[in-house]
Design goal:
rod-shaped; 51 residues; single chain; 78% helix; mainly alpha
Amino acid sequence: MRHNIRPSEWAKMGQGEKIILRAFMLQEIEAEHTEKEKIDAMVRDMKKGGN
């Protein structure tokens, strides 16, 4: 999920909103990174001849 926040919207947000939104964004990035690592491991296993 992407938040599609415009810079002008970000500038108008309060500090608390920015902190919470940033935490969600970082959590999403970490989840995407973890998923990518799982997929990369599967591809490596497939190249080695594993299932």
